[in-house]
Design goal:
The complex is a heterodimer of chains A (362) and B (192).
Chain A lengths: L2 H13 L4 H13 L1 H19 L7 H16 L6 H15 L2 H42 L15 H10 L6 H9 L32 E2 L4 E2 L9 H11 L16 H5 L2 H8 L2 H20 L5 H20 L3 H18 L3 H19 L1
Antiparallel strand pairs in A: 1-2
Chain B lengths: L7 H11 L3 H23 L2 H18 L9 H20 L5 H6 L13 H19 L3 H12 L4 H8 L3 H18 L1 H5 L2
Helix pairs in contact in B: 1-2, 2-3, 2-4, 3-4, 7-9, 8-9
Classes of the chains: A mainly alpha (362), B mainly alpha (192).
Chain lengths: 362, 192
């Protein structure tokens, strides 16, 4: 055997852990190999040195009180808090457990990290998609000066001149588009419309703007807007390069311009009165809240949640105190999201929540 | 001290201690306190630290008794606790042990320290310090195996059982530890 082979057996030889054959081979080798025999001698010397050292023994007084001191520490709950005991437990698991358990713990940890990262990435993707859609809405908005003062992406100061230019009244198409902007990417179940409780869905009256405030309810309604006229469709396609949807995707219709324009805030927007708008949106939210208090059943309730969430989105858009309103909006929408039962509505509300959260981050 | 299974009497004490009988646990402490302190001292080379580790070992053992399986070796169990506490302490404190460390940490308690012959003491002390330094610079896994084998005289099987590793791993770690020590202490040992 060569020296490197012998070296591996050398210490086992010293420990008496070799079988007879190996023992004989190593014994013969160290007789003729000064290098290996020195290594063995060195090990023996180290051992002798180490063993020679005595562990200093504390006095008997120390041992007499040792168990008592341990008892005191055990009894002293404050010294070993729950947290410490938990850390002992963890340490026991990770320090003394077999390798298999450690591996299992490692695998579980990796899976957890993977899941968290995946969730984070998908959340970021939604955010990016939301921002992308917002950017697209900006692109299709009419040129500056043609927009109504409620467009979310235009500072409030710039809005008033735009309204003023048209004497406080904007074309209906533009009104609907700008109101739609922050809600463009929301999807709601087919037939859902942003109307106040008690209003009949889908029934719109062709009345002059001045007459569109329902006197009995104190609400405003706008006539259905021509969102899919060939001229507008062509114009939109020119702006975005994307073919406009004539009909909403089945089951998840986009909130249409007409629906958005029905809100009371729209009327106030036409007047250029954002404070009034804000109040009206708040009233509308309160109305929905009362509607929910009457305990509607099933989808009706979820629709109400979604309408309230949309209301909060509008409220944030109009609010003077953005931070406070955003916090209120996020808190409320979170509750609606958790309360909604129908998946479609839940998703739509969640979408609104994500948008609000993205505003919060920004 | 055997690392194999507990004796029936010891099992009885453990059973009672598990049931909350502290005097039974105290008997277990009395039985193992010196060996646990000895191991702790070999690891950390300081009375204060060894005292702390020894006490902690029994405190943890008491809290962990419920998870202890009767029939297993109580000695191996508390030995592992002590070993881990000691190695954690070394990692935490980045302890560089020397003879001086012990002197500095000497408690007021009287120690029955055996004195060397004054003529050889100086040379021995130098070698001893160097050996301590090298042992303490070993990675904790190698150091644990080294201490159990060389200072505690445990067999390969016992070490494997104490550290819950295979016998092959014990052999491999011990080989690496010894090789490293012999290599690093070459000049001191041969007087080169």
């Amino acid at each position: 055997m060569r020296c490197d082979q012998i070296e591996k057996l050398l210490y086992l030889y010293e420990d008496g852990e070799l079988d007879e054959k190996e023992k004989r081979e190593v014994g013969e080798h160290i007789k003729i190999c000064p290098n290996c025999s020195k290594k063995l001698a060195d090990l023996k010397l180290i051992r002798a040195e180490v063993k020679e050292k005595k562990v200093p023994q504390p006095s008997e007084t120390y041992w007499e009180s040792f168990a008592h001191r341990v008892k005191e520490r055990i009894e002293d709950k404050t010294k070993v808090s729950f947290g410490q005991r938990f850390s002992y437990f963890l340490e026991m698991i990770f320090s003394y457990s077999p390798t298999k358990v450690k591996w299992a713990a490692a695998v579980v940890s990796v899976i957890l990290v993977f899941v968290v990262v995946k969730l984070f990435v998908s959340y970021e993707k939604i955010n990016i998609a939301t921002l992308g859609q917002k950017a697209q809405v900006q692109k299709i908005s009419p040129p500056a000066g043609e927009t109504l003062g409620v467009e979310t992406n235009i500072p409030r100061e710039q809005r008033k001149p735009a309204i003023a230019e048209r004497g406080g009244v904007a074309p209906e198409r533009e009104v609907s588009k700008t109101i739609q902007a922050p809600l463009k990417d929301m999807t709601v179940s087919k037939g859902l419309e942003s109307v106040a409780p008690g209003e009949e869905r889908g029934v719109q009256k062709e009345t002059p703007i001045a007459d569109r405030i329902a006197p009995d309810k104190g609400e405003t309604t706008l006539k259905k807007l021509p969102t899919t006229t060939p001229e507008l469709k062509e114009k939109e396609e020119r702006h975005t390069g994307v073919q406009a949807l004539e009909t909403p995707i089945s089951g998840t219709p986009v909130m249409t311009s007409a629906e958005s324009s029905k809100s009371k805030a729209t009327m106030a927007a036409v007047r250029g009165d954002t404070v009034k708008q804000e109040e009206l949106v708040r009233e509308s939210i309160d109305k929905w809240r009362r509607f929910i208090e009457d305990k509607p059943k099933g989808e009706e309730k979820d629709k109400a949640y979604l309408n309230m969430a949309q209301g909060y989105m509008r409220l944030y858009d109009l609010a003077r105190n953005k931070d406070e309103t955003l916090k209120e909006a996020m808190d409320s929408v979170k509750v609606y999201k958790d309360s909604a039962v129908t998946n479609t509505y839940k998703d739509s509300i969640n979408h609104i929540l994500i948008q609000l959260e993205s505003f919060h981050k920004n | 001290m055997s690392a194999s299974q507990s004796s029936p009497l010891e099992d009885q004490l453990i059973r009672e201690a598990k049931g909350g009988n502290y005097s039974s646990f105290e008997k277990l402490i009395k039985k193992y306190e010196r060996v646990i302190y000895g191991l702790a001292y070999k690891l950390v080379k300081s009375h204060d630290a060894a005292d702390e580790i020894a006490q902690q070992t029994f405190v943890r053992a008491f809290y962990g008794l419920k998870s202890f399986h009767l029939g297993c070796s109580f000695y191996s169990w508390i030995y592992r606790i002590c070993m881990n506490l000691g190695l954690n302490y070394i990692k935490r404190e980045s302890l560089t042990v020397s003879e001086g460390a012990f002197e500095q940490n000497k408690s007021p308690i009287d120690f029955a320290v055996e004195k060397d012959n004054p003529e050889t003491e100086l040379l021995k002390k130098e070698l001893s310090q160097k050996i301590d330094k090298e042992i303490n610079s070993l990675p904790s896994k190698l150091k644990a195996v080294w201490i159990l084998r060389e200072l505690e005289d445990q067999s390969y099987e016992q070490i494997a059982q104490t550290l819950k590793i295979s016998k092959g791993t014990v052999m491999s770690r011990l080989f690496r530890a010894r090789k490293r020590l012999v290599q690093n202490l070459k000049g001191y040992l041969r007087g080169d």
